[in-house]
Amino acid sequence: MAADMRLPTIQKPVSLSVSAFDRKDLVVPGDVITSDTGFMRGHGTYVDDDKLTASVAGEVQRVDKLICVRPLKTRFNGEVGDVVVGRVTEVQQKRWKVETNSRLDSILLLSSVNLPGGELRRRSAEDELTMREYLQEGDLISAEVQSVFSDGALSMHTRSLKYGKLGQGVLVQLSPSLIKRQKTHFHNLPCGASIILGNNGFVWLYPTPEQQEEEAGGFYTNLEPVGLSDREVISRLRNCLLALAAHKVLLYDTSVLYCYESSVHHQVKDILKPEVMEEIVMLTQQKLLEQEG
Amino acid sequence: MATVKVSEAEKVYILHGIRDDLRVDGRGCEDYRHVEIETDVVSNTDGSAKVTLGDTAVLVGIKADIGKPRPMVPNEGYLEFFVDCSANATPEFEGRGGEELGTELSNTLYKVFNNKHSVDLKSLCISAGEHCWVLYVDVLLLQCDGNLYDAISVAIKAALFNTKIPKVHISADEEGAKEIELSDDPYDCMRLDVENVPCIVTLCKVGHRHVVDVTLQEKACSVASLIISVTHTGTVTCTRKLGGGSLDPESIFEMTEAGKRVGKALHAPLMKLLRQEESLGKTRQKVGFLG
């Protein structure tokens, strides 16, 4: 019950691999990339006095004659096929506006969602009026990016039964750069919970559904209380995710699982203490190195 | 207060968790998040403190100025509070958005300190009826993740502990007018006794239970909360109800008892930490804002 108060200490991210200072292709804004005028400037660069200079902090990427700088910390830039977890912010005429941690709100068109029962028909005026019964402001959805508009806004769809409105669970908001691109972003972890690692940095933790019930695609939200053991697993996973994010470890199902396993000795609420975070992340990185090495 | 949107299913999840005493981050209903306190962070103030409670960060600076005492109490000094909700914390505070919250916080602080015992105001008097010390307490909200009252009160207590008021002595010059002289030695100063300074505990009613130190998501699931300021002996100096929902009298009593218990337990580790920090003296590694 007593509050844990302490003096602040300078946090150093735990890093077992090659030190970042040895890499030669990291730049900060203002660094000159090259003085050669033969290159084309891509995103993240500008020309200053005939010299190609970086405008963001990140790594330099060169493709033939094109030089661009990919920033380390940025808003989510969606590509077609990315799985995202977003929150509905507005309900408009024939579409929903969804917040996905990008520069502009993403769009979910009414024609891009499945109708209840899986009907295939043209959306009528009545469908428009009952939009709010499906998704309201504040609801969470998982969706896939269908296309990118010319202004950079993403257009999403939930045309598969695995996407749709999300039910009970916990959302963790992290940086998009920390999520590793993989074949699948939906995982049922062996520790007893399921996870959706959205490419936009939003990670959704939820209790594994008992039977794969006729995937309603999110029309029926199960509001039954979740058991205590499932809750503990989810809380532990949430704290592990925050610990990994604080030390800039790439997130994918294996790293999350190793972190969970390294944290079983500690109480769930202790995981967020700085020294426990360091210990857990160090163990996780060691395990990951062993696995790959 | 900054608000986050929460979906219905998330609210149900949070509600059931609190009912089972296992919150989203694994804490119990009466556990606080990790607190970090550092004093003496702002060099041009007489006392300052920075408190980080989870993701909420608050900076308090205290400046002592010589002013005229209030007419009703000529032999006491006084405190002036000002809370600034900076737009750093959340875009809602941009421009004049944070003014309402700031005035509400300042008014509550005035109420909390409006008694004879919290701060010894008589020690702030220089010459009765003419000069006294006025302590301007400025609070700056840097990050907002719920539980502002608690963080602010802990920061104010730490800053008051850190405050060094220069010693003055009054001499009468030829015409009989009083002259105030500050001592030349910068270390010759007076410290305040902060034993009786209260700490505020916010209890939010979520479902049928009350919760201490809520995050923004949990706040979105609660309709009413009670703030209680408690001293280290368990004395309550101020209670206030916030929020649009209703609280029935029985639960108010329960919440007050819980608040007294939690508040009393806050003071001991806080004073211990402040004294430990002071004993480190010059060897203390200053972290500041870029840690």
Automatic annotation (TrEMBL), chain A:
Q: Where is the Exosome complex component N-terminal domain?
A: 26-63
Where is this gene product found? Answer: Cytoplasm; Nucleus, Nucleolus
Q: Which residues form the K Homology domain?
A: 169-210
Which keywords does UniProt give here?
Cytoplasm, Exosome, Nucleus, Phosphoprotein, RNA-binding, rRNA processing
Q: Name one GO molecular function term.
A: RNA binding
What InterPro entries does the record tag this protein with? Exosome_cplx_N_dom, Exosome_RNA_bind1/RRP40/RRP4, KH_dom_type_1, KH_dom_type_1_sf, NA-bd_OB-fold, S1_RRP4
Q: Where is this protein primarily located?
A: cytoplasm
Residues forming the RRP4 S1 domain are: 75-147
Gene Ontology cellular component annotations, sorted alphabetically: cytoplasmic exosome (RNase complex); nuclear exosome (RNase complex); nucleolus
Gene3D superfamilies cross-referenced by the UniProt entry:
2.40.50.100, Nucleic acid-binding proteins (2.40.50.140)
Per the record, the GO terms for biological process are:
CUT catabolic process; exonucleolytic trimming to generate mature 3'-end of 5.8S rRNA from tricistronic rRNA transcript (SSU-rRNA, 5.8S rRNA, LSU-rRNA); nuclear polyadenylation-dependent rRNA catabolic process; poly(A)-dependent snoRNA 3'-end processing; TRAMP-dependent tRNA surveillance pathway; U4 snRNA 3'-end processing
Q: Which family does it belong to?
A: Belongs to the RRP4 family.
| Subunit-level organization | Component of the RNA exosome core complex (Exo-9), composed of EXOSC1, EXOSC2, EXOSC3, EXOSC4, EXOSC5, EXOSC6, EXOSC7, EXOSC8 and EXOSC9; within the complex interacts with EXOSC4 and EXOSC7. The catalytically inactive RNA exosome core complex (Exo-9) associates with the catalytic subunit EXOSC10/RRP6. Exo-9 may associate with DIS3 to form the nucleolar exosome complex, or DIS3L to form the cytoplasmic exosome complex. Exo-9 is formed by a hexameric base ring consisting of the heterodimers EXOSC4-EXOSC9, EXOSC5-EXOSC8 and EXOSC6-EXOSC7, and a cap ring consisting of EXOSC1, EXOSC2 and EXOSC3.
Name recorded for this polypeptide: Exosome complex component RRP4
- Organism of derivation: Zoarces viviparus (Viviparous eelpout)
UniProtKB/TrEMBL annotation, chain B:
Domain (Exoribonuclease phosphorolytic): residue spans on this chain: 32-166, 196-261
Q: Which family does it belong to?
A: Belongs to the RNase PH family.
What is the name of this protein?
Exosome component 7
Where does this protein reside within or beyond the cell? Cytoplasm; Nucleus, Nucleolus
What keywords tag this UniProt record?
A: Acetylation, Cytoplasm, Exosome, Nucleus, RNA-binding, rRNA processing
Give one Pfam hit by family name: RNase_PH
Cellular component per GO?
Answer: cytoplasmic exosome (RNase complex); nuclear exosome (RNase complex); nucleolus
Q: Which organism is it from?
A: Zoarces viviparus (Viviparous eelpout)
Please list the GO terms describing molecular function. mRNA 3'-UTR AU-rich region binding
Is the keyword RNA-binding in the record?
Answer: yes
